[in-house]
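Quarterly update from the structural biology core.
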Amino acid sequence: MSAQQQVIKIDDISEENAPAIYVAGGLGQFFDAVAAEVTAEVPDLTTRKGRERIASLAAKVSKSKTAVEKPGRDYLKRLKEMPKVVEAELRDFVNKMDALRDATRQPLTDWEQKELARTDAHVDAIQRIKDLVTFDQSPTAGHVANIIADLEQLEISESWEEFLADAAQAKDQTLIKLRTLHTERTRYEAEQAELIRLRAEAEAQAQRDRDAQIAREAAEAERQAAARREQELREQAAAAQRAAEQAARDAEVEAERQRLQLQLQAEQAERAAAQAEANRIAAEQRAEQERIAAEQRQAEAVEQARLAEVARQQAEANEAARQQREREADQAHKVKIMGAAKEALMSMNITEELAKAIVLKIARREVPNVTIHF
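Predicted structure, tokenized:
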């Protein structure tokens, strides 16, 4: 590699110096320079600034690759007599630059994938809370009460991370909807119990009416038959009359028994309706109390999220200040070492300007096999 090649930078590549650059092994210096720059620092993935710095370094690799590849392609078109050498060198350079770019960005890519999986898990969990109000068919009040009890046991803690406020809001809103549904289903079931009681009373009255009609029809039929046979079979008619009267009494006794049974059923239905109404009132009172408590919990969750964000921003600021102090200390150390090297060269009767130029050239690694240890 000639001295001219050693001092050429990527931005200095031109048509004039292309023959000295695009040769076997000629692009290695540019790859080494870019690799040294992007691997000289290890940005902090835990901060936004660090992640943006990784993306910026990867973009710089791509830009440097293009800056070397494009003039090389142009030069290759002009040098038909050596296309295989240039093409092989460019292909190797491009592959290494692509691999370097991918390796440089890999920590950010891994972090983005983990971050997406983490946020998706929280979003899915919040959606499952919201889906608790969806039913394939109308649920019973007892089933809704069980879901409310289970959801009330769900803990909304710091494990929800930045989704804490969303999870708390989803839980509270879902509880409000479920309690409203529970109140509606309780009222509906009470209404159905009242309808059953009314139907039982109506059926009892209808049965009493049928029994009375049967008794009247039986008595009338018997009376008419007795009249027809009165002249011929008075004794038989009297006996038949007594039998008819007994049958009527038996029918009345049975009718009374059925009436009492239906009355008992109606009273039981009425008591069930009263209990359902009492349950509905108690449920409404609990729902109001839970609504107030939910508002308080939501306010507390929002405040906790705000305090967590303030702490995170302070941590990022502290880390940025620490890194700045380290860079300044490193720069001061390098200046001190290079100053000592310059003084040593000046002790050999070399001018300060020349000594400074030599030290800078060595620091930039432009002098083969000579380095400065910082």
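The two ends are 26 Å apart (CA to CA).
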